[in-house]
DNA sequence: CTTTCATCTCAATGTATCTTGAGACATTAA
DNA sequence: TTAATGTCTCAAGATACATTGAGATGAAAG
């Protein structure tokens, strides 16, 4: 993830509806959700939803595939972890006090406390 | 860090000049830098720089204090780590595959490989 | 083949954001 | 006090973004 990609991802996430869509899709898992179901969850009109999904897909944060008459959207986990890694790499340069608290907060989530790879 | 704060922080970082300012200030350390020095590094006019610094300060990502005739800006580490934690907490809900790679990337940075707190 | 359903595309509108330039304000030095 | 320095504020203009509504497209059912 370079600066340009990070800017695209940050810009895509810096909007209430889109941030919520991403959160929804992450919890929805790899199968994702049909556009209609996302729209229902968001309370958004079809064109508004399409606008934001297109934006998220252009930023690489979600992907889509047709499934019958529906189109299913799912989160691109690599893009999210890439963004987080970018922010950490960026921020950590000689300043562990930035990311140490973030790492500590990881313990509170469902992640395995991954043995520190070398 | 709640959703509103995260949106403010993401919006502030989703702009080339501001993202670079934050990177610069993080590496500059707690003493920060005078506005003039930041502007010189960015190649930005004073009013343009002021606009972005004000935006970053409103988002809580940087703070300022007067130092003689200069005003020194420094990164707010808590805000950055809070945002990273928000994104991780968000993404990890039942989906460790999102943040595990990000954690792995931590090993490559200057951070201590923090014993997993409980 | 026609209808229905799910979603997308387009144009229009309003709002927000970024940049510029001129000038104001605060601080220090002469 | 006057001048110089560093930074901010304000108004104006250009660009980008978000939302709406109407209609087009693609897939499936009758």
From TrEMBL, chains A, B:
The keyword Transcription regulation applies. Keywords: DNA-binding, Transcription, Transcription regulation. Residues 1-95 form the HTH arsR-type domain. Gene3D superfamilies: Winged helix-like DNA-binding domain superfamily/Winged helix DNA-binding domain. Pfam families: HTH_20. InterPro entries: ArsR-like_HTH, HTH_ArsR_DNA-bd_dom, Metal_resp_trans_reg, WH-like_DNA-bd_sf, WH_DNA-bd_sf. NCBIfam families: HTH_metalloreg (NF033788). PANTHER family: ARSENICAL RESISTANCE OPERON REPRESSOR ARSR-RELATED. This is Metalloregulator ArsR/SmtB family transcription factor. It comes from Roseomonas populi.
């Amino acid at each position: 993830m370079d600066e340009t990609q990070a800017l695209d991802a940050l810009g895509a996430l810096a909007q209430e509806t889109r941030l919520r869509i991403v959160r929804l899709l992450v919890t929805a898992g790899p199968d994702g959700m049909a556009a209609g179901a996302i729209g229902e969850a968001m309370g958004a009109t079809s064109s508004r939803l399409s606008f934001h999904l297109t934006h998220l897909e252009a930023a690489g944060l979600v992907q889509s595939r047709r499934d019958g008459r529906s189109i299913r959207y799912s989160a691109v986990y690599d893009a999210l972890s890439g963004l987080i890694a970018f922010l950490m790499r960026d921020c950590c340069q000689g300043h562990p006090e930035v990311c140490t608290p973030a790492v500590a907060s990881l313990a509170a989530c469902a992640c395995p406390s991954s043995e520190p790879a070398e």
